[in-house]
Structures are given as C-alpha cells and as structure tokens.
Amino acid sequence: MVGHLQDRYELHNGVKIPYVGLGVYKMEDKEEAVGAVKTALETGYRSIDTAQFYQNEDCVGKAVAELGIPREEIFITSKVWNSDQGYDSTLRAFEHSLNELKQDYIDLYLIHWPIKVKYKETWKALERLYREGVVKAIGVSNFQIHHLEDLMSTSNEKPVINQVELHPYLSQKPLREFCKQHQIAVEAWSPIARGRILEDPVLAEMGKKYGKTTAQIILRWHLQNNVVIIPKSVHANRIKENAQLFDFELQATDVEVIHSLNKDQRFGKDPDYFNL
Fold it and tell me: How many Å apart are CA 228 and CA 57, to the nearest integer?
C-alpha cells in the first residue's frame, strides 16, 4: 500500500516512478509555472510531468535548477507531440525538450497520442533514445488496448507505462486489466476530471465520512487501485492538499462504490478520433 508522498512504483524495466506527481498542463504563465513546480518540490513531490505541447518545459528546468535538489531524486516526464511524430522528427523533438529542460537525460519519455501510421516509427526513435541512455524509460499516452497490441506486435521494447484519462466517471477497467496483464503501469492524467466531478454527491458524502476533500477521496481511490497520478494545480494550497493522501485509507466497500460511478464518460479527446 502506498504510504508516503515519495513512494515509488517499480516499472517493468526496474526504473521507479513516484506514485504522485505534479502535472503542468495549461500552465501558460511562465512565472506561475515555475512557482507551482517549486512549491510542489518544496512540499515533497519528486515527479513533474510536462510535454513539448505544454510549452513550459523550460519552466520545469528552471524550477529544478533553482531549488538544487539532487537530480537523481527528481523524476521528469515529457512527451513528443503529434506533429513531431515519425523517426527523425521525434529525435529532433527530444533534443529540443532536453535543451528546454536543461537536463542531460529525461526519466520518462512518452508518445503523447497514438497517431495512425506514425506511432510505430515514433516508437523506434524512443527505443533508440532508451538504448542510448538519454531516456531512462519509455512509454505511451492515450493508447487504447488495440493501439498497445499493434505497437507491441513489432516493437523490441514494451511500454513501461500508459498515461490515460482516468477518473471515477471513466474508470478504464478493461484497459487497466490489459495493462496489468502485460506489466504496463497505468498513470492517470486528469485524475479528478479537471474538477468536473467534485460536486458528485456520492463522492462529497464520502469526503464527509473520512474528513477529507472530494479531490482527496478520488486521489486516494487511484492509489488504492495502484494507479500513478499527476494532479495539476498552480495553487499552493491545492498542491499541498493533493499530497495529503496518506493518513487515511478507503474501505474496500467504498472503493467499490466509487467503481460503480463509472459512466465511460470522457472529458478529454477520444484517442481513436483525435488528430488523425
């Protein structure tokens, strides 16, 4: 059971990723982004999730440099965007990300979306980066079961992780079971559905029962499902609140109640139809 903010999930290649990280999607104000990352790291977070598309990799690098925490303690994730997929263009995109972050390596590099006819070539580039040691682990984001099956049918390396939209209204049970079967970790982006389900009466009532916020109830549910989470916030109080998940445990019956809220409802894009 996850018991501490810096507890880590061991990926199938032996690399360990913190169960809880800070997502920096839509942090467009540079100063605000640097401040959020610094607050998270000062609070005890050791995982930061960014992407080329977010245009704030430089902010992550700046915050990491300014705090002076040993690099090996911090886990940095980035992703190659759709328009840069393909073998050579992915290698160029990675170099750009590395320069923006001002790092010698990236801990985890992901394919951001499964772009048809491109993601296999993109994956070959990620395999090369992994062999060269400039990436410690490689994975995918927003891949459905059929994408994973197709990718693994010709790949040399299996993704260590699949980062997907996942929350109580979109529990992704078949995908999670497939990933477990193949030793692929599951990571939830939008773990609280961008705040859209915080008014759910069942979750709100559960929050009262445990003396926790609805967001904390949802995040704890993820952890008890062995899901890695990257909640996003620019507000110091929320960043700290999202880390206070280790002084309580949901009863098994309550975990099942949250499971029952699933509606297969997406708030983000459908991977099968986005940016084809």
Answer: 21
From 129, 106, 114, select the one nearest 175 (Cα to Cα): 114
Determine the distance from the C-alpha atom of residue 30 to the mean position of all C-alpha atoms in its chain, rounded to a whole number.
Answer: 21
Q: Which long-range contacts (CB under 8 A, 24 or more apart) does 62-65 make?
A: 62/34, 62/102, 63/33, 63/34, 63/35, 63/37, 63/38, 64/37, 64/101, 64/103, 65/102
112 annotated among ligand-binding-site residues: yes
Active site residues: 54
Q: What is the largest CA-CA distance in the chain?
A: 53
The secondary structure of residue 81, as a DSSP letter, is -
Q: Which residues make Cβ contacts (< 8 Å) with residue 207, sequence separation at least 6?
A: 213, 214, 216, 217
Pairing, β 47-49 against β 75-80: parallel
Domain spans in the chain, listed from the N-terminal domain onward: 8-196+227-233
DSSP H helical segments within 102-250, as ranges? Answer: 119-132, 145-152, 173-181, 201-210, 214-224, 236-241
In which region does residue 39 sit, left (phi positive, over 0), alpha (psi from -120 to 50) or beta (all else)? alpha
pTM, 2 dp = 0.97
What's the pLDDT tens digit per position in 133-188?
A: 999 999 999 999 999 999 999 999 999 999 999 999 999 999 999 999 999 999 99
pLDDT of residue 275 exceeding 90, the answer is: no
Coil, strand or helix at 172? coil
Identify which of 10, 40, 81, 57 has the alpha carbon closest to the alpha carbon of residue 238: 40
Residue listed under structure tokens 């002076």: 68
Measured distance CA(256)–CA(260) in Å, rounded: 6
pLDDT range class, residue 276, cuts 50, 70, 90: low
> Which numeric CATH code is attached to 8-196+227-233?
3.20.20.100
Kindly report the average pLDDT of the chain as a whole number.
Answer: 97
